[in-house]
Amino acid sequence: MIDIVESTIDHFTLVERVRSRAAGAVCTFLGTAREFTGERRTKSLEYEAYRAMALKKMAEIDAEARRRWPIVESAIVHRVGVVELGEISVLIAVSCPHRAQAFEACRYLIDALKECVPIWKKETWAEGGEEWIHPGLDDPRGETESVRSAKLTTVGSNSLSALRRETLAAKPETIGGEDS
């Protein structure tokens, strides 16, 4: 299951959806809105997505994960709109025959999603001000091996720079429209 939703993510239902008799392990990742980013207090988060491209990229990273690991079921769900402190903004759930496979696949999926999927986060600060962030475009922090590999796999013949230009160029026209 791959989705972008505007309402609360029901993690219990999604985890139950990926459970299977064929899988000995289910690994989940829940991204939640935290109160502090470094020294700054967060008031709320807001997410926007280039929906059509985001769903396509989510499907590509899911397909790559299924190529690498024996995934029985998976769920990749990201929320858009305002996310209050403590609420879930993203869920990854993976079932595999063994725990190491489930852990590795789950880690790959969240790392690749953060790096390659055109979803932008606006942090609104308690002391005033706000900042738009997309880790894959703006954040030079260290990449994991799985993300470096995801770039090569999901971007294909396009360079990551071309993907960045494409998503940045498309964002203003698509956010808030029928496609978002």
Structure description:
With 180 residues, this protein is of the alpha+beta class. The protein has a single domain, classed as Molybdopterin biosynthesis MoaE subunit (Aldehyde Oxidoreductase, domain 3). 41% of the residues lie in helices and 31% in strands. It has helices at residues 11-18, 51-68, 99-116, 135-138, 145-155, 160-174; strands at 2-5, 25-32, 36-37, 40-49, 73-79, 81-84, 88-96, 119-125, 130-133. Strands 3, 4, 6, 8 and 9 form a 5-stranded antiparallel sheet that branches. Strands 1-5-7-2 form a 4-stranded mixed sheet, with helices on both faces. The longest helix is centred in the first third of the chain and has 18 residues, at 51-68. The protein is elongated and about 50 Å long. Residues 138-165 and 171-180 have low confidence and may be disordered.
What name is given to the CATH topology? Aldehyde Oxidoreductase, domain 3
Under CATH, the homologous superfamily reads Molybdopterin biosynthesis MoaE subunit
Structural class: alpha+beta
Number of strands: 9
How many distinct domains? 1
Structural key phrases:
180 residues, 6 helices, disordered C terminus, Aldehyde Oxidoreductase, domain 3, 31% strand, 41% helix, five-stranded antiparallel beta sheet
